[in-house]
Amino acid sequence: MAEYAKTARNTVNRYRGRGAYDHATIHAIVNAAPILHVAFNPPGDAFPTILPMIGCMGSFAQPAAPLSAPLDLYLHGYVSSRLMRLPSAASVAKEAAAKEEEAEKAKEEEEEEDQEGSTSLCIAATLLDGLVLALTPNHHSMNYRSAILHGRATLVTDAAEKLYAMQLVTDNVIPDRWAHTRVPPTAVEMQSTSILRVAVADASAKVRSGEPGEDRRDEKDEAVRGRVWTGVVPTWTAYGAPVPAGRNRVGVPGHVSGLVEGGNRENERTAREAAGG
């Protein structure tokens, strides 16, 4: 089973048994998360920035590659957004910095050149599967699946790869949606959309499932156990009945109704299985 190498940056320290480093687990969590939170350090700003974005794991070179394979993360955004402009700005900054490097830092120069034109990112994906209610608030928890990725982002400039990524992200939100829309995008739509390809440097996942853990003294306290309900409230994303647009002229297509029915069924199954451990 292919895994990301453990480093000081991505190793899970608290509840190590919940940690996972295999590609399949991490990539599945990323693709299942409706929103990814992407953090970066804007030049000249004392505070880091974090943005909600949509994205998907994939491989332009091997489109049929499974989630267990090494994959890139593609992020979709608007061309003028600050994050989308950073990779080109980073290229200029790194090139200028390289010229000022001293001879004894040649190795560091080479590393900078390898990263030229990229922006360092941290991406978080989180899925909530349940509220875990214990005898005491201190032992309350949540069932969850989370993943953290670190990587370097570059702008996708190749038209074919950009189209691949746009379809990848679209179909990850609603399977088969791309083919049921007006495609290909116009020149204006292509110009207004930017795609970042993130080469993942390291990553890890953390997953909790099961019932609450209790304090031993509380478990022996019949008075407490006799008045406090404990257990798990399964939690999942549920899609409602599709609401047609005012100018819509067609019935609900199968790929939309399939998302609602199949997505709701799968999300509920996952949450209930997590509740049982």
Low-confidence segments: 106-114
Q: Give me the Rg, rounded.
A: 22 Å
- Helical content, roughly? 25-40%
The assigned structural class equals alpha+beta
Share of residues in strands:
25-35%
Average pLDDT, rounded to a whole number, is 91
Order of helices and strands: EHEEEHHEEHHEHHEH
Say how many strands there are. 8
Report how far the terminal alpha carbons are from each other.
23 Å
Which strands sit side by side, in order, in the main sheet? 2-3-4-7-6-5
Biggest pleated-sheet summary: 6 strands, antiparallel, barrel
The number of helical elements comes to: 8
Indicate the overall shape: globular
Which key terms come to mind for this protein?
277 residues; alpha+beta; six-stranded antiparallel β-barrel; 8 helices; 32% helix; 27% strand
Describe the fold and architecture:
With 277 residues, the chain is α+β, with helices and mostly antiparallel strands. It contains eight helices and eight strands. It has a six-stranded antiparallel β-barrel, surrounded by four helices. It is globular and about 70 Å long.
Describe the structure concisely.
The protein is an alpha+beta fold and 277 residues long. The chain has helices at residues 23-32, 82-99, 106-114, 159-173, 187-192, 216-219, 222-225, 254-275; strands at 19-20, 36-40, 49-58, 72-78, 119-133, 141-155, 193-208, 231-234.
